[in-house]
Write the structure tokens for this entry.
Amino acid sequence: TAPTLVTRLEKQIHHFIDEHADVVVKPLDGMGGAQVFRVTDADPNRNVIVETITAHGARSIMAQHYLPEIVRGDKRILLIGGAVAPFALARIPKAGETRGNLAAGGSGVAQPLTSRDREIAEHLAPILHARGILLAGIDVIGDCLTEINVTSPTCFVEITEQTGFNVAAMFLDALERACGG
């Protein structure tokens, strides 16, 4: 994983920004790129960004060291029933943007998994499945896992349309197995 901090304590967030110099902060319960900020140690809006994102310490957030590989995409990899879908959707930021989320204007490009993508996904898939998670979407930027999404693991449609691999069928087969069918 990229260096990561989860906290609601503003002092800890500022220390993390000082330590890593270039950081992305985002709410733990967000989606679609909403309220995701890139902040540097010299950013004149740094204090207000931290105050806003934490609601003055009332909301926990995730801070991660900024990964410049985001320009090649934030890859969503689907883990279904303990198995790994063979394609990822690289969500590539539009010009001048840090967020690759489709809802934030990023473009989605389906692609086969790299060996590193597969290594990360194959490690996590059985662990998550053993914990009762039938469907998860993990996000990888460069060589680093950045998120595990269990409430909104999107990209079925885009992967299927671009590759012909039927992600929904993989999910339904896993669901039937889980139900004993």
Q: What stands out?
A: The CA atoms of residues 84 and 123 lie 10 Å apart. The two ends are 37 Å apart (CA to CA). The mean pLDDT is 93.
